[in-house]
Protein backbone atom coordinates (compact mmCIF):
# COMPACT_ATOMS: atom_id res chain seq x y z
CA UNK A 1 0.00 0.00 0.00
CA UNK A 2 2.77 2.46 0.81
CA UNK A 3 4.46 4.37 -1.98
CA UNK A 4 7.84 5.18 -0.44
CA UNK A 5 10.56 2.80 0.64
CA UNK A 6 12.04 2.64 4.15
CA UNK A 7 15.37 4.42 3.72
CA UNK A 8 15.98 5.71 7.21
CA UNK A 9 14.97 2.69 9.24
CA UNK A 10 17.04 2.59 12.40
CA UNK A 11 17.52 6.32 12.93
CA UNK A 12 13.86 7.18 12.50
CA UNK A 13 12.64 4.25 14.59
CA UNK A 14 14.84 5.39 17.45
CA UNK A 15 13.43 8.90 17.06
CA UNK A 16 9.90 7.48 17.14
CA UNK A 17 10.46 5.53 20.33
CA UNK A 18 12.20 8.48 21.98
CA UNK A 19 9.46 10.89 20.94
CA UNK A 20 6.69 8.82 22.52
CA UNK A 21 7.32 10.25 25.97
CA UNK A 22 7.27 13.80 24.62
CA UNK A 23 3.74 13.32 23.33
CA UNK A 24 2.40 11.51 26.39
CA UNK A 25 0.33 14.51 27.42
CA UNK A 26 -1.61 14.21 24.14
CA UNK A 27 -2.88 10.70 24.80
CA UNK A 28 -6.45 10.08 23.68
CA UNK A 29 -9.13 9.93 26.39
CA UNK A 30 -10.09 6.49 27.64
CA UNK A 31 -7.94 3.63 28.74
CA UNK A 32 -5.15 2.44 26.48
CA UNK A 33 -4.42 -1.20 27.17
CA UNK A 34 -1.46 -1.85 29.42
CA UNK A 35 1.34 -4.07 28.09
CA UNK A 36 0.16 -6.80 30.49
CA UNK A 37 -3.39 -6.72 29.13
CA UNK A 38 -2.18 -6.55 25.52
CA UNK A 39 0.19 -9.48 25.96
CA UNK A 40 -2.46 -11.57 27.70
CA UNK A 41 -4.84 -10.92 24.80
CA UNK A 42 -2.17 -11.84 22.25
CA UNK A 43 -1.34 -15.08 24.07
CA UNK A 44 -4.96 -16.24 23.69
CA UNK A 45 -4.60 -16.31 19.90
CA UNK A 46 -2.73 -18.65 17.63
CA UNK A 47 0.16 -17.09 15.74
CA UNK A 48 -1.63 -14.57 13.51
CA UNK A 49 -1.05 -15.13 9.82
CA UNK A 50 -3.04 -13.89 6.89
CA UNK A 51 -3.41 -11.18 4.33
CA UNK A 52 -4.97 -7.86 3.50
CA UNK A 53 -8.13 -8.96 1.71
CA UNK A 54 -10.40 -7.62 -0.98
CA UNK A 55 -12.22 -10.01 -3.33
CA UNK A 56 -10.73 -10.21 -6.83
CA UNK A 57 -13.98 -8.80 -8.25
CA UNK A 58 -13.62 -5.45 -6.45
CA UNK A 59 -11.34 -2.60 -7.50
CA UNK A 60 -11.75 -0.72 -4.22
CA UNK A 61 -13.54 -0.57 -0.90
CA UNK A 62 -16.77 0.85 -2.35
CA UNK A 63 -17.06 -1.93 -4.89
CA UNK A 64 -16.55 -4.45 -2.12
CA UNK A 65 -19.22 -3.01 0.20
CA UNK A 66 -21.97 -1.44 -1.94
CA UNK A 67 -25.09 -3.57 -2.22
CA UNK A 68 -25.02 -3.89 -6.02
CA UNK A 69 -21.45 -5.19 -6.12
CA UNK A 70 -21.08 -7.02 -2.79
CA UNK A 71 -19.95 -10.51 -3.82
CA UNK A 72 -20.33 -13.12 -1.06
CA UNK A 73 -19.81 -15.99 -3.50
CA UNK A 74 -16.32 -14.80 -4.43
CA UNK A 75 -15.54 -13.89 -0.81
CA UNK A 76 -16.49 -17.41 0.27
CA UNK A 77 -14.40 -19.05 -2.44
CA UNK A 78 -11.33 -16.92 -1.82
CA UNK A 79 -11.46 -17.17 1.96
CA UNK A 80 -11.54 -20.90 1.32
CA UNK A 81 -8.14 -20.52 -0.33
CA UNK A 82 -6.99 -18.76 2.83
CA UNK A 83 -8.27 -21.50 5.11
CA UNK A 84 -6.54 -24.07 2.93
CA UNK A 85 -3.09 -22.61 3.64
CA UNK A 86 -3.73 -22.04 7.33
CA UNK A 87 -4.38 -18.30 7.30
CA UNK A 88 -6.44 -17.29 10.34
CA UNK A 89 -6.64 -13.48 10.02
CA UNK A 90 -7.66 -11.07 7.27
CA UNK A 91 -7.36 -7.28 7.27
CA UNK A 92 -10.34 -5.71 5.49
CA UNK A 93 -10.96 -2.06 4.62
CA UNK A 94 -14.39 -0.53 5.25
CA UNK A 95 -15.64 2.67 3.61
CA UNK A 96 -17.56 5.58 5.14
CA UNK A 97 -19.59 6.51 2.04
CA UNK A 98 -20.95 2.98 1.76
CA UNK A 99 -22.17 3.33 5.36
CA UNK A 100 -23.61 6.79 4.68
CA UNK A 101 -25.54 5.53 1.64
CA UNK A 102 -27.11 2.56 3.43
CA UNK A 103 -26.30 2.29 7.13
CA UNK A 104 -28.37 -0.79 7.94
CA UNK A 105 -27.43 -2.55 4.71
CA UNK A 106 -23.76 -1.80 5.19
CA UNK A 107 -23.72 -3.33 8.67
CA UNK A 108 -25.74 -6.30 7.41
CA UNK A 109 -23.10 -6.92 4.74
CA UNK A 110 -20.37 -6.63 7.37
CA UNK A 111 -22.22 -9.35 9.27
CA UNK A 112 -22.41 -11.50 6.14
CA UNK A 113 -18.68 -11.10 5.60
CA UNK A 114 -17.95 -12.02 9.21
CA UNK A 115 -20.13 -15.12 8.94
CA UNK A 116 -18.25 -16.28 5.85
CA UNK A 117 -14.87 -15.58 7.46
CA UNK A 118 -15.89 -17.38 10.63
CA UNK A 119 -16.95 -20.41 8.62
CA UNK A 120 -13.38 -20.53 7.33
CA UNK A 121 -11.93 -20.11 10.85
CA UNK A 122 -10.70 -16.60 10.03
CA UNK A 123 -10.83 -13.56 12.28
CA UNK A 124 -11.09 -10.07 10.82
CA UNK A 125 -9.20 -6.86 11.36
CA UNK A 126 -11.36 -3.97 10.07
CA UNK A 127 -9.83 -0.69 8.86
CA UNK A 128 -11.72 2.62 9.04
CA UNK A 129 -9.71 5.44 7.41
CA UNK A 130 -6.97 5.53 4.79
CA UNK A 131 -4.65 8.15 3.28
CA UNK A 132 -3.55 6.07 0.25
CA UNK A 133 -4.18 6.56 -3.46
CA UNK A 134 -7.22 8.34 -4.92
CA UNK A 135 -8.69 11.26 -2.97
CA UNK A 136 -12.08 11.58 -4.70
CA UNK A 137 -14.70 8.88 -4.22
CA UNK A 138 -18.17 8.62 -5.72
CA UNK A 139 -21.00 6.31 -4.78
CA UNK A 140 -22.20 4.07 -7.59
CA UNK A 141 -20.49 2.06 -10.29
CA UNK A 142 -16.74 2.15 -9.81
CA UNK A 143 -14.22 2.69 -12.63
CA UNK A 144 -12.58 -0.17 -14.46
CA UNK A 145 -8.95 -0.84 -13.59
CA UNK A 146 -6.33 1.15 -15.48
CA UNK A 147 -4.32 -1.31 -17.50
CA UNK A 148 -1.12 -2.40 -15.80
CA UNK A 149 -1.34 0.13 -12.94
CA UNK A 150 -1.12 -0.88 -9.28
CA UNK A 151 -4.26 -0.09 -7.25
CA UNK A 152 -5.57 2.36 -9.84
CA UNK A 153 -9.00 2.57 -8.20
CA UNK A 154 -8.17 2.40 -4.49
CA UNK A 155 -9.71 5.18 -2.42
CA UNK A 156 -8.60 7.39 0.41
CA UNK A 157 -11.16 7.75 3.16
CA UNK A 158 -12.30 10.45 3.71
CA UNK A 159 -9.90 11.86 1.08
CA UNK A 160 -10.89 15.30 -0.13
CA UNK A 161 -14.11 15.10 1.87
CA UNK A 162 -12.05 16.08 4.91
CA UNK A 163 -12.66 19.68 3.76
CA UNK A 164 -16.46 19.33 3.81
CA UNK A 165 -18.50 21.16 6.42
CA UNK A 166 -19.64 18.82 9.16
CA UNK A 167 -17.39 16.00 8.02
CA UNK A 168 -16.05 15.24 11.51
CA UNK A 169 -19.58 14.81 12.87
CA UNK A 170 -20.36 12.46 9.99
CA UNK A 171 -17.20 10.43 10.47
CA UNK A 172 -17.75 10.23 14.22
CA UNK A 173 -21.26 8.88 13.63
CA UNK A 174 -19.85 6.30 11.22
CA UNK A 175 -17.13 5.03 13.54
CA UNK A 176 -19.42 5.09 16.57
CA UNK A 177 -22.27 3.25 14.84
CA UNK A 178 -20.13 0.53 13.29
CA UNK A 179 -17.95 -0.04 16.31
CA UNK A 180 -20.88 -0.01 18.76
CA UNK A 181 -22.74 -2.58 16.65
CA UNK A 182 -19.78 -4.98 16.66
CA UNK A 183 -17.97 -4.04 19.88
CA UNK A 184 -18.56 -7.45 21.48
CA UNK A 185 -18.19 -9.54 18.30
CA UNK A 186 -15.56 -12.23 18.87
CA UNK A 187 -15.14 -12.70 15.12
CA UNK A 188 -13.38 -9.32 15.00
CA UNK A 189 -9.76 -9.48 16.09
CA UNK A 190 -8.86 -5.78 16.12
CA UNK A 191 -9.96 -2.35 14.88
CA UNK A 192 -7.33 -0.69 12.69
CA UNK A 193 -8.40 2.93 12.93
CA UNK A 194 -6.32 4.63 10.22
CA UNK A 195 -4.20 3.15 7.45
CA UNK A 196 -0.96 5.01 6.77
CA UNK A 197 -1.91 8.44 8.14
CA UNK A 198 0.16 11.16 6.48
CA UNK A 199 0.51 9.36 3.15
CA UNK A 200 -0.23 11.15 -0.16
CA UNK A 201 2.00 14.03 1.04
CA UNK A 202 -0.41 14.88 3.87
CA UNK A 203 2.13 14.31 6.65
CA UNK A 204 1.09 15.96 9.93
CA UNK A 205 -2.09 17.35 8.35
CA UNK A 206 -3.62 13.96 9.16
CA UNK A 207 -3.04 14.40 12.89
CA UNK A 208 -6.47 15.97 13.68
CA UNK A 209 -8.41 13.01 12.24
CA UNK A 210 -6.00 10.53 13.84
CA UNK A 211 -6.56 12.09 17.27
CA UNK A 212 -10.32 12.17 16.78
CA UNK A 213 -10.70 8.58 15.65
CA UNK A 214 -8.81 7.32 18.69
CA UNK A 215 -11.06 9.46 20.88
CA UNK A 216 -14.19 8.11 19.19
CA UNK A 217 -12.96 4.54 19.57
CA UNK A 218 -12.15 5.02 23.26
CA UNK A 219 -15.64 6.42 23.84
CA UNK A 220 -17.14 3.20 22.44
CA UNK A 221 -14.68 1.08 24.45
CA UNK A 222 -14.88 -2.13 22.38
CA UNK A 223 -13.82 -5.52 23.67
CA UNK A 224 -11.32 -5.72 20.82
CA UNK A 225 -8.04 -3.77 20.81
CA UNK A 226 -7.58 -0.69 18.63
CA UNK A 227 -4.46 0.32 16.75
CA UNK A 228 -3.10 2.44 13.90
CA UNK A 229 -0.05 1.10 12.14
CA UNK A 230 3.31 2.84 11.98
CA UNK A 231 4.67 2.94 8.47
CA UNK A 232 6.98 5.91 7.69
CA UNK A 233 9.78 6.55 10.15
CA UNK A 234 10.07 10.21 9.08
CA UNK A 235 6.72 11.05 10.70
CA UNK A 236 7.85 11.49 14.30
CA UNK A 237 4.69 13.16 15.65
CA UNK A 238 2.29 10.76 13.94
CA UNK A 239 4.36 7.72 14.89
CA UNK A 240 4.61 8.75 18.52
CA UNK A 241 0.86 9.34 18.76
CA UNK A 242 0.03 6.06 17.06
CA UNK A 243 2.40 4.04 19.22
CA UNK A 244 1.29 5.70 22.45
CA UNK A 245 -2.42 5.23 21.80
CA UNK A 246 -2.48 1.77 20.22
CA UNK A 247 -3.43 -1.19 22.41
CA UNK A 248 -1.11 -3.40 20.38
CA UNK A 249 1.59 -2.18 18.00
CA UNK A 250 0.84 -2.66 14.31
CA UNK A 251 3.20 -1.60 11.56
CA UNK A 252 4.15 -1.97 7.88
CA UNK A 253 7.53 -3.08 6.54
CA UNK A 254 8.32 -3.96 2.94
CA UNK A 255 12.06 -4.47 3.40
CA UNK A 256 14.14 -7.65 3.50
CA UNK A 257 14.44 -9.82 6.59
CA UNK A 258 17.54 -8.13 8.06
CA UNK A 259 16.09 -4.64 7.86
CA UNK A 260 12.67 -5.85 8.97
CA UNK A 261 14.19 -7.54 12.01
CA UNK A 262 15.66 -4.18 13.09
CA UNK A 263 12.17 -2.73 12.92
CA UNK A 264 10.91 -5.48 15.20
CA UNK A 265 13.76 -5.16 17.68
CA UNK A 266 13.13 -1.45 18.11
CA UNK A 267 9.33 -1.64 18.23
CA UNK A 268 9.55 -4.30 20.93
CA UNK A 269 10.75 -1.51 23.23
CA UNK A 270 7.06 -0.61 23.69
CA UNK A 271 6.56 -3.91 25.52
CA UNK A 272 3.42 -4.79 23.55
CA UNK A 273 2.61 -7.46 20.95
CA UNK A 274 3.56 -6.68 17.37
CA UNK A 275 1.49 -7.38 14.26
CA UNK A 276 2.91 -6.57 10.84
CA UNK A 277 -0.20 -5.65 8.87
CA UNK A 278 1.60 -5.12 5.55
CA UNK A 279 4.69 -6.81 4.11
CA UNK A 280 5.70 -8.87 1.04
CA UNK A 281 6.81 -7.03 -2.07
CA UNK A 282 8.84 -9.54 -4.03
CA UNK A 283 10.86 -7.10 -6.13
CA UNK A 284 11.85 -5.18 -2.98
CA UNK A 285 13.32 -8.20 -1.24
CA UNK A 286 10.35 -8.78 1.07
CA UNK A 287 9.28 -12.33 0.32
CA UNK A 288 7.55 -15.17 2.09
CA UNK A 289 10.71 -17.25 1.93
CA UNK A 290 12.90 -14.84 3.88
CA UNK A 291 10.47 -12.76 5.97
CA UNK A 292 7.68 -15.08 7.08
CA UNK A 293 9.90 -17.58 8.99
CA UNK A 294 11.55 -14.65 10.78
CA UNK A 295 8.17 -13.22 11.78
CA UNK A 296 7.12 -16.56 13.21
CA UNK A 297 10.38 -16.92 15.12
CA UNK A 298 9.83 -13.44 16.58
CA UNK A 299 6.16 -14.23 17.37
CA UNK A 300 5.06 -11.25 15.28
CA UNK A 301 1.70 -11.39 13.51
CA UNK A 302 2.13 -11.53 9.74
CA UNK A 303 -0.38 -10.13 7.24
CA UNK A 304 0.92 -9.62 3.71
CA UNK A 305 -0.55 -7.23 1.18
CA UNK A 306 -2.41 -8.93 -1.64
CA UNK A 307 -4.18 -12.27 -1.83
CA UNK A 308 -5.90 -13.16 -5.12
CA UNK A 309 -4.90 -11.37 -8.31
CA UNK A 310 -7.80 -9.22 -9.47
CA UNK A 311 -9.09 -5.76 -10.18
CA UNK A 312 -6.69 -4.04 -7.78
CA UNK A 313 -3.81 -4.95 -10.12
CA UNK A 314 -1.41 -5.47 -7.24
CA UNK A 315 0.64 -8.00 -9.20
CA UNK A 316 2.16 -4.78 -10.61
CA UNK A 317 4.63 -2.76 -8.54
CA UNK A 318 3.84 0.66 -7.04
CA UNK A 319 6.21 2.46 -9.36
CA UNK A 320 6.49 0.12 -12.36
CA UNK A 321 3.33 0.26 -14.50
CA UNK A 322 3.03 -2.03 -17.51
CA UNK A 323 0.98 -0.17 -20.15
CA UNK A 324 0.45 -3.30 -22.23
CA UNK A 325 -1.12 -5.09 -19.27
CA UNK A 326 1.19 -8.07 -19.59
CA UNK A 327 1.69 -10.26 -16.54
CA UNK A 328 4.96 -9.23 -14.88
CA UNK A 329 7.67 -11.85 -14.68
CA UNK A 330 7.73 -11.33 -10.92
CA UNK A 331 4.45 -10.49 -9.21
CA UNK A 332 4.77 -7.62 -6.75
CA UNK A 333 2.01 -8.85 -4.39
CA UNK A 334 -0.66 -11.60 -4.36
CA UNK A 335 -0.52 -15.34 -3.77
CA UNK A 336 -3.22 -16.96 -5.91
CA UNK A 337 -4.72 -16.77 -9.36
CA UNK A 338 -8.51 -16.46 -9.46
CA UNK A 339 -9.00 -20.21 -9.85
CA UNK A 340 -6.98 -20.88 -6.69
CA UNK A 341 -3.79 -21.88 -8.48
CA UNK A 342 -0.76 -20.57 -6.54
CA UNK A 343 1.52 -18.10 -8.29
CA UNK A 344 4.47 -19.94 -6.73
CA UNK A 345 3.74 -23.38 -5.32
CA UNK A 346 6.83 -23.33 -3.11
CA UNK A 347 5.57 -20.20 -1.35
CA UNK A 348 2.24 -21.80 -0.59
CA UNK A 349 3.99 -24.94 0.65
CA UNK A 350 6.08 -22.82 3.03
CA UNK A 351 3.04 -20.91 4.31
CA UNK A 352 1.21 -24.17 4.97
CA UNK A 353 4.22 -25.65 6.75
CA UNK A 354 4.66 -22.62 9.00
CA UNK A 355 0.94 -22.68 9.78
CA UNK A 356 0.98 -26.39 10.60
CA UNK A 357 -1.21 -27.44 7.67
From TrEMBL:
**What start and end residues bound the annotated signal peptide?**
1-24
Recorded GO molecular functions are:
hydrolase activity, acting on glycosyl bonds
Tell me the GO BP annotations in alphabetical order.
Answer: xylan catabolic process
Q: Does the keyword Lyase apply?
A: no
Is the Cytoplasm keyword given for this protein? Answer: no
Q: Which UniProt keywords apply?
A: Carbohydrate metabolism, Glycosidase, Hydrolase, Polysaccharide degradation, Signal, Xylan degradation
| Domain of life according to the entry | Bacteria
Q: What is this protein called?
A: 1,4-beta-xylanase
Q: Which organism is it from?
A: Mucilaginibacter pedocola
